[in-house]
Request: fold
Amino acid sequence: MKKFGLVLLCALFSAQSVFATSCGTNCEYTLENGVLTIYGTGTDGAGAITTHPWKASDVTSVSIAEGITTIGSYAFQGTKLTEVTLPSTITGIDFAAFNGVKTLQSINIPSGVTFIGQQAFQNTALTSITLPEGVTSIGKMAFNGVKTLQSVTIPDSVTSIGAYAFSGATVSNIICSEENLRKYMSAGGGFTANAQIMCTTGKCEDALKNTKYANLINNIVKYVQEVRQPDGSINIYKHGKLIGFKNKRIYTVEEASKLSKDMGNTFRIRYK
Reply:
């Protein structure tokens, strides 16, 4: 009987906990069979991950519920995550949150995120990163050592890119402003031999001049944005400037006049 009791006790202590445990401010989690489930206990599920009591090597996937606002420092460092879907309520990703997750190949960054902390994704295996409009800062060494990174989108809202933020990256596609292109290169970011560079504002040609990437000036692709209208037609903008329409057969006099002025003789407009 004593032997049975001892075996049972050992089994209980060695099993991964499926009981809810605190992981920060109004934050609880369960961990079962490698699946980490995190949820908030505040109003409307609000909460913040400010501690990381789980054993990193036990975590292979994570589910974060709506309401969680912050991914705290070191939250998933050293785990075995391959993919992460963050809730729309996330506003920030703190210091080294995913540092060293060498299996992490993709992640979505919600539109409410305003900052990427220092070393947040250092030494991961991300292949692409699209930062939403609203992100203002990318911390020092945020994507340092991510040699697999192929595609980067930096919104115009970004005003600060920390030192070595992209050191080790050699991307084949990048979308950003002229100013942020300069910051990307200053932060150690590089390009493949046939990289395509799309510039949202400014002149990326000027940013590349007198750098070791001057040979890529001919690879610059002008940034074109298409916006669907309620009537099903599509307005086409280049660098924020209306340059054309799709699926639209009838133009107002104002629209036709504007296009004639903006585009000169590049195409004909038929009034109706």
